[in-house]
Amino acid sequence: MPNTILQARDVTFEFPLQPVFSHFSATLRAGITYVAGGESCGKSTLLRLFSGDLTPQAGSIEVCGISSKDKLASYKQHVFWIDPRTSALDHLSPNDYFDLQRKDYPEFDDALLLELIEGLSLSDHVSKAIYMLSAGSKRKVWLAAAFASGATATLLDEPFAALDKASINFLLERLECVAHNTNRAWVIADYEVPQNLSTVLTIDLDL
User: Fold this and answer.
1) Mind listing the pLDDT tens digit for each residue in 159-188?
2) CATH 3.40.50.300 describes domain 4-204
3) % residues pLDDT > 90 (the chain)
4) Where are the alpha helices (DSSP H) in the chain?
5) Is there a contact between 51 and 189 (Cβ–Cβ < 8 Å)?
6) CA neighbours within 13 Å on the CB side: how many for 101?
7) Most buried pick, 75, 79, 149, 164, via CB within 10 A?
8) Is this model's pTM higher than 0.90 or not?
9) How many helices (H) and strands (E) does the chain have?
10) Exposed (0-12), middle (13-18) or buried (19+): which is 17, by Cβ within 10 Å?
């Protein structure tokens, strides 16, 4: 059985006047966990809780035994997350952004990054400002960093959105390559699980 990477126990979280999770628990092992569900069911919120960007009102979340509440800085060193809709990094170039990730993740793989840049057709864009890129190209930048980061837990929110068909196929091939990894967990939130993608767990928030 794959190693346990991330553990959520009795997590309760709500926005003002908007309950989202009550006593939610899950054990995420190495490989791919899919978080499925319809609009506004809490998929992105769950990823933000797993990332440490949001703090549960009750319960605990740990990655490799490190608590997001008690040791947040150490926790975040093991988790890759970026909101794909963010504009906070638009002033940077992809190369600038990759430099930041090298500092944050000691296992960052530059050789793999080059393969991802080529496979996602980013070579002509890595020196441009991110605000100049299309929505699809911006997502490709985040995806390249995610795979190259070497993070123990990698969180991807709707990773196929705005991608061209060739990039979707490339991403599916990459995900299948990591699906049987024994020391990294991938958590993908989307409306439904792509066919033929190997997963170890599906969390359906509509149930």
Assistant:
1) 999 999 999 999 999 999 999 989 999 999
2) yes
3) 95
4) 43-51, 72-76, 94-104, 110-119, 135-149, 165-178
5) no
6) 28
7) 79
8) yes
9) 6, 9
10) exposed
